[in-house]
Predict the 3D structure of the following.
Amino acid sequence: MHLYALLSDRIMLKIDALPAFSDNYIWLLQDLEQRRCAVVDPGDAAPVEAWLAANPGWQLSDILITHHHFDHVGGVERLKSATGARVLGPAQENIPARDLPLSEGDSVEVLGQRLRVLEVPGHTLGHIAYYQAEQQWLFCGDTLFAAGCGRLFEGTAEQMHASLSRLAALPGQTAVYCTHEYTLSNLRFAQAVEPNNPQIAQRLQEVSAWRAAGQISLPSTVALERATNPFLRSAETSVKEKIEAHEGRVKRSPSEVFAGLRTWKDSF
Ligand code: ZN
Ligand code: FE
């Protein structure tokens, strides 16, 4: 899947997914005019090196990191020493070879695009996301997934719920570039939570067909996530009632409903 954007200064940016490991994607942003590129979360250097080898004359200018897990930073040092690329990553985490530590509200320019930094703790405590407001791109690592969300390795359910609520409040057309191809199994869980949600049923059918054909299911959009991602829907009565029935006890707040969903999904 290709996404082109015509920018104000007429530079064309293209975003592709480089598959890594069994289900990771390394997002590759390409400035077609200047032949410069940037990558998000290169857990493995090899797919990026292979792309650069197949595309001579291209320069890797930036490496963007969302959080410290190995499947997101494993390729950083090799890529930086081979290309001299600048490494951007969360200030509050240990990121190999990081040049620019980033915190909430920071704004950085990458390939002529202004990216805003959002702190989204939950999966890890220092996890950040990158948002491009004009193009409406969101690079959100392992926080928001298509039809799901990251596991709570470091943060609390309350923190993750607050982080996801911030992302859900972005404009509906925002393209969601997350790091893993988990969409199909996430949708099976979504359907167990909301068996009567027609948009979930439709999306499950669509994504099943794409995956059977070997196609990527990303990027998603914020609007589609609001409609089909149970972890963004903990304020819905049907979702609240479902988790209450599943656990056999009453939930007081959307954040408690979210916590129940996350626990259920962990053993689904
Ligand atoms: Zn992770
Ligand atoms: Fe990951």
